[in-house]
Automatic annotation (TrEMBL):
<dbReference type="InterPro" id="IPR015422">
    <property type="entry name" value="PyrdxlP-dep_Trfase_small"/>
</dbReference>
<comment type="similarity">
    <text>Belongs to the class-I pyridoxal-phosphate-dependent aminotransferase family.</text>
</comment>
<dbReference type="GO" id="GO:0016212">
    <property type="term" value="F:kynurenine-oxoglutarate transaminase activity"/>
</dbReference>
<dbReference type="InterPro" id="IPR004838">
    <property type="entry name" value="NHTrfase_class1_PyrdxlP-BS"/>
</dbReference>
<keyword id="KW-0663">Pyridoxal phosphate</keyword>
<dbReference type="InterPro" id="IPR015424">
    <property type="entry name" value="PyrdxlP-dep_Trfase"/>
</dbReference>
<dbReference type="Pfam" id="PF00155">
    <property type="entry name" value="Aminotran_1_2"/>
</dbReference>
<keyword id="KW-0032">Aminotransferase</keyword>
<feature type="domain" description="Aminotransferase class I/classII large">
    <location>
        <begin position="91"/>
        <end position="443"/>
    </location>
</feature>
<dbReference type="GO" id="GO:0030170">
    <property type="term" value="F:pyridoxal phosphate binding"/>
</dbReference>
<keyword id="KW-0808">Transferase</keyword>
<protein>
    <recommendedName>
        <fullName>Aminotransferase</fullName>
        <ecNumber>2.6.1.-</ecNumber>
    </recommendedName>
</protein>
<dbReference type="InterPro" id="IPR004839">
    <property type="entry name" value="Aminotransferase_I/II_large"/>
</dbReference>
<dbReference type="InterPro" id="IPR015421">
    <property type="entry name" value="PyrdxlP-dep_Trfase_major"/>
</dbReference>
<dbReference type="GO" id="GO:0005737">
    <property type="term" value="C:cytoplasm"/>
</dbReference>
<dbReference type="InterPro" id="IPR051326">
    <property type="entry name" value="Kynurenine-oxoglutarate_AT"/>
</dbReference>
Amino acid sequence: MIMLIDWALRDVSLLGHNGRVAPRVLSEPKILAGVASTPTLSRAWRALLCRAKSSFKRQRPMQHPVLSQKAARFTESVIRGMSIEALKYNAVNLAQGMPDFPAPPDLKAAACRAIESDINQYAVTWGARGLRQAIAEHASWHLGLTVDPETEITVTCGSTEAMLVALLSLINPGDEVILSQPFYENYWPDCVLAGAVPRFFPMRAPDWTFDPDELAAAFNDRTKAIVLCNPNNPTGTVFSRAELEQVAALCRKWDVIAITDEIYEHIVYDGRPHVALASLDGMRERSVTIGGMSKTYSVTGWRVGTMIAPASLTHAFRQVHDYVSIGAAAPLQEAGAFAYRMPRAYYTKLSADYQSRRDRLCSALLDVGFDLVPPHGAYYVMANIEAFGATDDVAFARHLVRDLGVATVPGSSFFHDKALGRQYIRFCFCKQDSTLDAAIERLRKLQVIV
Ligand SMILES: Cc1ncc(COP(=O)(O)O)c(C=O)c1O
């Protein structure tokens, strides 16, 4: 008996810090209960023993699932995961779409000036006025949109937040959202978080475009929105005006909102124009145009995104955004006002430089034995791996990163129906020539290894 009380008190003495006791130190609760009811114990001792007993109860393993049903549906981002593998195996990272060259010096200087002039506190939650003004000017000449910076623009923490905010603000549980397949990896988790039911329309190789009938078949009276990435990650498709007209007609017919991810708006090749869906007839009032600084100004780590939408939608977006993140980094927004007013020559050079990187990588990949059609926009290429006898994109990508030292993204991570992506891997080419050359040199070993 004395020993039992001693054990129990040792447990109780541990309760002091935070009321928690490591379960392995705790005594059996039944024994504690027995001890606590022993008539010879004083009231104080009994109280201590009861505390020990209830603490033991608190330490029992959780009876209910800890994670929400939404969180339990997620897996880690394959793209970001491949970047971690690249570090681990000292591989050339052609997986995650982040440039390895510096941002424009003038832009960096503008950010430094903003910090030097003590722009250190929260900006207006929906975006610093100067930046919104600059975004409106840019949208006018580049997208052909007349935008009121006071009521129709929201600045977010990257376009990633913008997409989530749009869906959280528009979707009721069970509403359907149309996605292309393949699609940029984030859209499916965004739909899950918003409670949307995704429906897919296929974009098929080799030119990665869609069949109008298959697109039309995805619409019905439960459709709330379509998410369209243009220029497209991962396929590099730049939708023509005629294709966008088909999307627009369906949006009007079914009273659907178009959420366009135009983060690669300035990265288009071979003279292809970038057309904003919102600029087509009757689309401005039902479009959310998402963009950002990450890709156009080579500052993926700055986390400045933009949403252009009618005032009624923007009002809701701003509220949701406020509670999600309050706002993007204030000094970087200040620099953004400088960025969006860059001379047009900046943008011409940006796409010309990317076109030369595209040509460098794509011709080398064809030479090595991959099958692909060079993309018309964005900075990715989907490469078919069947010529190497490969049938499993994940195993193939793992082989590339671990044995050859080149990180890519398995194609299936862009598909809901994983089988459709098994014969592809995605390369990105937002890299210096020397990086691309190093990757190519390593890839040349493929022919003999596989
Ligand atoms: C299609 C697409 N949208 C959004 C993002 C993320 O953009 P941000 O850095 O603005 O969040 C990426 C990044 O790779 C992307 O490819």
